[in-house]
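Give me the fold.
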Amino acid sequence: MTLYRVDKRKFKIDDVISPETSFETTMQDESKEMEDLLNELRPTGIPERKDCLFLFQDLICALRFYSKYGGSIYGVEPLHCYFRGDMNKLDNILDMFRYSEDENLRKTAVNEYWKAGTHTFNPCYEILASRARVKRIVCNNDLFQNIREEIGINGNSIEHTSIYKTLLRE
């Protein structure tokens, strides 16, 4: 099974990517509160999110993330998967945290993320994994500016970019 990892670190084919456990240290306010509650309410057998490697199930989701943050996209083989969740739910939960301090509402929303089989209308699945082995380098930071420009030209649609069409054929 090929999944996708967007990462600013440089890897080669057959390298093993481990989690970058420092991502929570940059969080503040509602983002930190949400992450803390996600960790508190996580199901048994799933490590804290900071100890997981986040992988995209679909190339389109990896490209969307890449178009915002840059780095490189790697085609990877996960070594151990813990959970599959819809990243769009995280955006919805964060919005809710910004507008409500109701603890019961916050817990209900976070539990929805962890609930199996639920997703948004157009899910962007993230896989929480222990590590992953690089199988191919899909694109690197050299293409970042070109992709951003092409997305703008194509009405903010990644699906209409030449890079997406090329990668989809591969």
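The CA atoms of residues 23 and 50 lie 7 Å apart.
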